[in-house]
Amino acid sequence: MEEEVNQRVVSLSFNAGRMTAEVAARAMAGFIAAEHQKLNQHAAERSDKPKHGKTTIGKLMDQDAGAEKVEIENTGLKNFDKIARKYHIDYAIKKDSGEDPPKYYLFFKARDKDVMGMAFKEYMDSVKKQKEKESMKEKIQKNKEKSKQLDMKRSRDKNRHQERSL
Question: Are residues 57 and 130 both part of a single domain?
Fold first, then answer.
């Protein structure tokens, strides 16, 4: 693309030597208008491309690919969105609030079954890592509580020792 622009600039400057200022200004305006039109056309082409990731169930069904569902946990759904986009998967999440606790269902196109398997495996690995991190946080919290209890016990023992010595 740069070469095209450079060639146009060179040819325009070459022809500009023979033109009047008014003709050169019209030529530049035409060139700028053509470039804007190309940019708008590229933007329209990009917006026409299907976007992958979270969508509605209706839009998923409109793609005429059939749909499958999988029950998932509510944890880390944002992580799943990143993974689904990575694998170019269209999906929809439906919450079944009729049960306690509510269940979440993941709908995806049937033709994406194999890719979905890989993406879902990666998602489950990330959920496990997240749970491990939470358990480490819980361990740290428990150790903090134990240390506070030990500090309180030490301070009580110190106070008793001071009272006895008086």
Answer: yes
Residue 81 to residue 69: CA distance in whole angstroms: 16
Residue 142, domain member (yes or no): no
Domains identified in the chain, total number:
2
DSSP run (H or E) holding 22: helix 21-48
Residue pLDDT, tens place only, 55-113: 777 777 777 667 777 787 776 677 778 888 888 888 888 888 888 888 888 887 767 77
State whether 113 and 80 are in the same domain: yes
DSSP track, 81-127: HHHHHHTT-EEEEEEETTSSSPEEEEEEEGGGHHHHHHHHHHHHHHH
Summarised one tens digit per residue, pLDDT across range 30-57 is 888 888 888 887 766 665 555 666 777 7
Residue with tokens 């740290």: 140
Query: Which residues, in sequence order, are CB contacts of 83 under 8 Å at separation 6+?
Result: 119, 122, 123, 126
Tell me if 153 is assigned to some domain. no
Q: Name the residue range of residue 9's domain.
A: 2-48
Q: What is the pLDDT of residue 49?
A: 55
Query: Are 32 and 57 found together in one domain?
Result: no
